[in-house]
Amino acid sequence: MRVRTIVMLTVTTLILFAVSGAGQTPSSPGFDQLKTLVGDWEGRGENGKTYRASYKLVSGGHALLEVLTPPEESEMMTVYHQDSNRVAMTHYCAANNQPHMRTAALTGRPKELDFVSVGVSNLASPTAGHMHALVVILDDKDQFTQKWTWRENGKDRVEVFHFTRKKS
Q1: pLDDT digit string (tens) for 18-32?
Q2: Following DSSP, what letter does each residue of 85-142 receive, concatenated?
Q3: Is 48 domain-assigned?
Q4: Residue 156, domain extent
């Protein structure tokens, strides 16, 4: 009787683990790469000014929160998350709109993630200024580059930022 009870408990436990994992999406190589940014960073823009960025995992590790602090401007937030084999993001801009972007399908361990616009919330007009694209280049574990594309009146302007991990 005792052996039967132990076997039943073991089988029940294995079934529960199998069921709980059945609905989970496999990890995304692109999102896994972005997770390496967790920590504090300091960077320079092409204008020579210093920018700060910090990254932390939120929502049980399923989203990456970026807080970008430009000099003499309001801080902005971007939330990145896995979208099947893509990475999606929403940027909460100081321009009071929220661009939504997504990468193409990713495989392997990408060193570059190219985000393109899939829509913008709270855009005053179709020609109003907004972030339209982002390229994140993971140079190495202590350096990365962001290339933000601002679109206004049908014209694009790219701003490049080079970040270095702050040592604690």
Answers
A1: 544 445 667 788 999
A2: TEEEEEEE-TTS-EEEEEPPP--S--SEEEEEEEEEET-SSTTS-EEEEEEEEEEETT
A3: yes
A4: 27-165
